Amino acid sequence: MSALFNFQSLLLVILLFICTCTYVRAVAPSLVDRNKTGFLGLLFKSARIGERLSPYVGLACIAMAVTMLMQ
Fold it and tell me: How does this chain sit within the bilayer (predicted)?
C-alpha cells in the first residue's frame, strides 16, 4: 500500500522529511538556504519547521515510533 493512501505512513514520511531537511541544514546550510522559493523551497520550509518546532517534532517522532512498535 502506498504512503499516500495510508494516513499513518503519510505522517511518517512527513516526519522523516522534516527531520532529514533539518539535519541537512545543520550539516550543510548552503544546500538548503539557497533555495527559498519554488519547489525546492520545501526543503527550506521543512528545515525551518524542524528547527523552530523541534520539541514537538521530537515528540511526534517518539509517538510514531511507539505506535509502530505496538503494531
Answer: Single-pass type I membrane protein
